[in-house]
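Good morning,

Both structures are done.
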Amino acid sequence: MTELNSGETSSQQHVDKLNEILTQYETSLGVKINKTDSKVEHYMNLKPAELNKLDRDQCGEAAILLAQYSLYLQRQQNREKAVINWSDSKIKLQISGETQNYHGSSFDERRMMAIKGNSYTANLFKLKMLSQARLDTIEFLSGRVSFLSRIYSTLSGARHG
């Protein structure tokens, strides 16, 4: 997270609590996800000449490691979506009834004015934007990792020990 001022700290504490609840829920489901293995980065960045030198077992290992990393990235996507949804709900709750106090040509303009007029909702909106930026990045990376995992899996089946 970025540095937070005192108004953002309260929002961040709520997000930390949300992440704690999600972690407890995942644990109750038996889902234990590690960030990454140093080999993941290695397999993601192999050049074609190096890729051609891998045997069937190495390709299989790469496919499994990348699939596990893809699961980790999916978990991160879900958490960012949860923060975005939570922030949206809190903003709506906070500004309900306040938009009519602002004058603008559209509801969206009045909504943004109401958000800016309240430091708590302004901080929630910043948090939402940050989470959306992270989500956009993770979604791209997740697609790339999943694609590479399928390639290694295909290579593993095509190669002979």
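Second structure follows.
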Amino acid sequence: MGRETTPAPTTSGPRRPRPRPALAAAKQAGKPTRGYATAPARCISLAAGAYAWLGGFRRPAVALETTAAPVLLAGQAYAGPAQGEGFGPLFRRAKQVLDEGRLPGTALANLYYNNPETAHDTVRAFIGLVVADTLRPLPAGLRYRLVPAGLRIVAARTTGVSYLLAPNKLYPAALDLVKQQKLAPRDFYLERFGPGDTAEVWVGVK
């Protein structure tokens, strides 16, 4: 009879890779490992940097005022849903007119007759730009509208804040003051976006 031999044991499944000494030591020490734990921190840092570059950390100046002079606007009226197809082109048209210098305008301006932050079903607005006078003929489709002097408003203003962020900072700041001073708001909201990333919002009050 031949001698029986016991077969060598075999392992099933894939072989596990050997841990790298540096990575294992970092894990044991509780330190973040490069490429994993540091990636979210880098994303947060980049986002914070972009937010700061756009002026996101600047705080608006807010005051209760009475307007001293009228404001002359040139633009187009709108009444409809905030997501309506005809709403967006009005802003692009106003920006085009301003960039082409066809009117003596210095700032984009939007006048709302209901709160644009909460009105979604129907927005009533006049979208255009602030102009100095009525001496030049208006481009096709545009009309003049006058905001009279002597209006009681809460004005919120920023400088160095991108127009992408400015409305979300200005409206809450103005409405907070309205609430703090227990003022009665009117259906009047005027936005202005001027050169040098200057922006302001007027909220009409009684």
